[in-house]
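Our consortium's second objective concerns turning raw sequence data into structural hypotheses that experimental partners can test. To show how far this objective has progressed, the report includes one record in full. It was chosen at random from the queue rather than selected for favorable results. The single chain below, 275 residues long, was entered without modification.
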Amino acid sequence: MRRKPPFISESLRAQFKAIVVDVMALVPKGSHANYVIIDPTVPDPEGVFPGVPIYTGQSADIAQRILAHLRHAAVVPPDRGQLYARMAALIHAGSMPIFRILQVHRTRAQCLVAETTWAQRLLRSKAQLLNTSPDQSRILTRSSVRRMQRVGLFALTLDEADRVGLGLQVRCRGGCQSITVQPSSLARRFGERMTFRGVRQRLKRCHACGDANGFRLQPAAVSKTGWKAPEGSTLGLRYRDGGWFYRAEPDDLAHHELAANKQCASHSEDHGEYV
């Protein structure tokens, strides 16, 4: 049965709209943004934000994402999860959660790889993040951060990957074949809205020998007319051992450097890995 829309008073609706208008002033149309939700009743240990960060995320439609967060928290009882319970307590106490834009990107690929970096920065600065994914809920080693960023890019649709010049290398673990496939070729079989993750699930076995396949992101020619495959630095990726991989050293990321106009990664080496 379809869930009945929650009742939200007109005064709350007006406050929600004001929050969205304030945030959207910093986000160009068509951009992808990393954002943070802040609890203003608890001081930020580093004194950077007007409260302690409690959640970080990314979205291509930041207005709808903010409204969704607020609506989930405004229902009685709030929707399941520690984040919405905490936001609900703030809303009903008259202290609205604060939303801030961390960084704006032209593509979802850039936004995805930055999401983990921002979460690790905040966690290292004693933020009380209530995110549930492993790379956003606990402090990780450098190698684990880089691996999670690579895995995160598998959430790209084939159309999004085609636009930024990322292909998929499929290698049989039995050694019988290794090929790099353009997203446009995969889209003809699976559809443009299929993700790399979905392709990996459907091609998990080698069609020749039946052994398991390994997968790795690779640069690929962009099939869209007028698009040019970017250099690795465009996505914050480094070409090494046959693949583009994200560059980040969270141990070197200082909390006072948080600003939307700063790059979200420093430089480090990485080695190719199949996932």
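The partners drew two points from this record. The beta strands are 32-39, 52-59, 98-105, 166-172, 178-181, 213-219, 237-240, 243-246. The two ends are 38 Å apart (CA to CA). Both points have been shared with the crystallography group to help prioritize constructs.
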